[in-house]
Amino acid sequence: MTQLKIWRTHSSNQIPKKQTAGSACFDLQFQGHGKGTYKGYTRMNKPFERPMNHQVVVQPGDRIMVPTGLILDIPEGHSVRVHARSGMSLKQGLVLANAEGVIDSDYVEELMVLVHNISDNALTIKTGDRIAQAELIKDAEYEVIESAVRPGIKTSRVGGMGSTGVESVADIIKITVAEPPKTPLTEQKRSRGRPKKNA
Questions:
Q1: pTM for the complete prediction?
Q2: What's the pLDDT tens digit per position in 108-147?
Q3: Which CATH class is domain 5-138?
Q4: For residue range 3-48, what is the model confidence (pLDDT) as tens digits?
Q5: Is 81 in contact with 134 (CB distance < 8 Å)?
């Protein structure tokens, strides 16, 4: 079985584990032992550094780096993907600033979780709070090369972004040709230029 080794930056930090036998991910906690400040950006993109005091406060619109107190020893040929926790995203509005974190096998610094407060309320994260979830992924071996020809249509899909679920090009771009308005009968003219009278 493949192993993911984890080194703690402080002896008080907890090693994460899967919550159930069927869990795909393990939870990541905020663990700031040995740290006095945390950094981030406001909604106006201004950098800040605030005192930690065993908790971090995420103001509305803030994007901050939450320390996990862990350094991952990711086996070669693998990577770790960090995902938001669904409960926190739905109930509190705390999501990942980068949507999904990708940790490469050659990254050997402390894992920081980038969180973003999309709610209108200040959110407090305390030591030990679960802030994200992560999984070990086996990488596919591939290389990026240039193609000599443009890729052709592979399926029934026609069009680009947002084009799935339509039947044809005509469904993507609908063109409606309006008929010219008909001239009322009372305004139709005879050949001599006089209006035609109704019976």
A1: 0.77
A2: 999 999 999 999 999 999 999 999 999 999 999 999 999 9
A3: mainly beta
A4: 999 999 999 999 998 889 899 999 999 999 999 999 999 999 999 9
A5: yes
> Can you point out the beta strands (E) in 9-118?
26-29, 37-41, 47-51, 55-58, 63-67, 70-73, 78-83, 94-96, 101-103, 112-117
Instruction: Tell me how far apart the alpha carbons of residues 62 and 42 are, in angstroms, rounded to a whole number.
Output: 5
Helix, strand, coil percentages in the chain from 3-state DSSP, rounded to 5: 5, 30, 60
Domain boundaries in the chain?
5-138
Strand ranges in 76-162 using DSSP code E only, listed in sequence order: 78-83, 94-96, 101-103, 112-117, 123-126, 130-138
Biggest CA pair distance of the chain:
105
Q: Are strands 101-103 and 78-83 parallel, antiparallel or unpaired?
A: antiparallel
**Amino acid type, 91:** K
Closest Cα to residue 35, out of 14, 65, 5, 61? 65
Phi, psi of 113, rounded to the nearest 5 degrees = -100, 125
Region of 161 on the Ramachandran plot (φ > 0 left; ψ -120 to 50 alpha; else beta): beta
User: Are 29 and 70 in contact, with CB atoms under 8 Å apart?
Assistant: no
Tokens 């939870």, residue located: 27
Q: How far apart are CA 135 and CA 18, in angstroms?
A: 10
C-alpha torsion sign, points 112, 132, 29, 1:
negative
Nearest to 113 by CA among 85, 90, 147, 149: 85
